[in-house]
Design goal:
The chain has 21 helices and twelve strands. The chain has 529 residues and is an alpha/beta fold. A five-stranded parallel β-sheet has the order 3-12-11-10-9. The protein has a five-stranded parallel β-sheet with strand order 4-5-6-7-8, with helices on one face. Strands 1-2 form a two-stranded antiparallel sheet.
């Protein structure tokens, strides 16, 4: 009987059966080792989930700050253990809610934040010294972090006690997502300024989460997700060191963000390979001496690209498998997508079900009872080795051609991802890759769903609050703060203190970004063919 050939989504050929021969090259003392020990293949902590479960951090944000605050409180009451904030597109792109280009998107894919007044409402009643907060924000990350610091000060919480993460990974915006404002090099300066500022003033804060998630969502393979994420991380470390920071000053504060896709074993192997690869990059390439600098700490989100609008109940199963892969791979925190997110923002009920999925995995399945339960599997070890080797080869190729920043500016990385996405879509259209409910096992009639709709009144409410802030603030103080920021942007001073002063004066996010646009210019992407 003829047996069909099979390979992983990254193109790794799979034999019918894995045996010790496929992992003969593994030096178990060097490559596998024990959890909590270099190179951390089996996990970055000695006890992993036996000591502490991963953080259950559901992503939330829509409409106005009041609505998102209610969702935060609801999820915290249901057992969520960390906050994760989604911001609307105007906030991400540095436009005020009353800007003509912004109005159609106000509150649609996240919460609208124009000034410190919005941030105060967003975290009203939530003590910032008792929660960890993740903010998915990039081009305007410095401004949102400044607002968070200012809210904490008003609560009486010193910034030294703030714990959380800003995504702040601008390079992947040019590659995969598109919410950039300024050209890459001044944007890299903003990132470096945040790294410097947090190293001194926010010792518990992670100023960057280097994101493979959006690279994967754009169509990259697992190997590309690892390689391009590592290349971005290398670029940030190099920039920080060139700015005078020691690698062991910033290394312990670098975090990562990956996707969990549908191929269970490849995803588990991907996380293990990324952990090992980063440990070697930091110790062997950059000479980091602090073991905390070697540890790849990462958040995982289940794959939005895998969700289907057809038969959305099936997404519960997809998310469960993806979450299981992240847990088996040793993630430090996890967001599980809701079943209706291919249709709209999640309802309270579907967001709760997504959280319950994590809780069932944590408390009912035994999956957290043993560290790295798939470690030693011939299949998983062979895949781990192959993904690490292929990712290292891709990193070497990009660096040999000049490095990540020139590759982004020339559109090389974008083109490689686009080609991978095209190949995968062709496989779906030809039926070589089965997607249940989409190209096989379809239903003629779909069940109607009650979906969350953002009220049109959100725009008017947001504009009204913005107008009130502008009318009540000290205009001279705002002008002075913005003028000082502009001078600093044209010079070489760290911009964080100047942004913080502007925020405290209730300057708007649009006003602050306009000052930086005037100093830095606006990015125009290359045409990728």
């Amino acid at each position: 009987m003829e047996v069909r050939g099979v390979e992983t989504p990254s193109g790794v050929p799979l034999p019918l059966l894995f045996t010790p021969l496929e992992v003969a090259s593994v030096d178990y003392a060097r490559d596998l080792g024990f959890p909590g020990e270099y190179p951390y293949t089996r996990g970055i902590y000695p006890t992993m989930y036996r000591g502490r479960l991963w953080t259950m951090r559901q992503y939330a944000g829509y409409g106005t700050a009041e609505e998102t605050n209610r969702r935060f409180r609801y999820l915290l009451d249901q057992g969520q253990t960390g906050l994760s904030v989604a911001f609307d597109l105007p906030t991400q792109m540095g436009y005020d809610s009353d800007h003509p280009i912004a109005e159609p998107e106000v509150g649609k894919v996240g919460v609208a934040i124009d000034t410190l007044a919005d941030m105060e409402v967003l975290f009203q009643g939530i003590p910032l010294d008792r929660v960890t907060t993740s903010m998915t924000i990039n081009a305007t990350a410095a401004i949102l972090l400044a607002m968070y610091i200012a809210v904490a000060e008003k609560q009486g919480v010193p910034k030294e006690r703030l714990d959380g993460t800003t995504q702040n990974d601008i390079l992947k915006e040019y590659i995969a997502r598109g919410t950039y404002i300024f050209p890459p090099r001044p944007s890299l300066r903003l990132v470096t300024d945040m790294l410097q500022y947090c190293a001194v003033h926010l010792p518990k804060w992670n100023p960057i989460s280097i994101s493979g998630y959006h690279i994967r969502e754009a169509g990259a393979t697992a190997v590309q997700e690892v390689a391009f994420t590592m290349l971005n991380a290398i670029t940030y470390v190099q920039a920080a060191m060139e700015a005078g920071l020691d690698v062991d000053t910033i290394g312990p504060h670098l975090t990562f963000f990956f996707a969990a896709q549908m191929n269970l074993f490849e995803e588990v192997a991907k996380f293990r390979a990324a952990r090992r690869l980063w440990a070697r990059i930091m110790r062997e390439r950059f000479g980091a001496r602090d073991p905390r600098s070697w540890k790849l700490r990462f958040h995982t989100q289940t794959a939005g690209a895998a969700l289907t609008a057809q038969q959305p109940e099936n997404n519960v199963v997809r998310v469960t498998v993806q979450a299981l892969a992240a847990i088996l791979g040793g993630t430090q925190s996890l967001h599980t997508n809701a079943k209706d997110e291919a249709l709209a923002l999640p309802t309270d009920a579907s967001a709760l079900l997504a959280l319950r999925t994590q809780q069932i995995l944590a408390y009912e399945t035994g999956v957290a009872d043993v560290i790295d339960p798939l470690g030693g599997s011939f299949y998983v070890e062979a895949l781990t080795n192959e993904i690490e080797a292929q990712a290292a080869e891709l990193i070497q190729r990009i660096e040999a051609s000049g490095g990540m920043l020139p590759a982004i500016e020339a559109g090389v990385i974008q083109r490689e991802i686009a080609e991978s996405a095209y190949r995968e879509q062709q496989r779906v259209e030809r039926g070589e890759k089965i997607v249940v409910g989409v190209n096989r096992f379809c239903q003629e009639e779909e069940t109607s769903y009650k979906i969350l709709k953002v009220s049109p009144e959100v725009v008017e409410r947001q504009k009204a609050r913005l107008a009130k802030v502008r009318a009540e603030r000290d205009g001279a103080q705002v002008e002075a703060a913005l003028r000082a920021l502009g001078d600093a942007a044209r010079g070489r001073d760290n911009l964080m203190p100047f942004i913080l002063e502007a925020v405290k004066a209730y300057a708007t996010i649009g006003e602050i970004c306009d000052v930086l646009r005037a100093a830095f210019g606006v990015y125009r992407p290359p045409v990728v063919v």
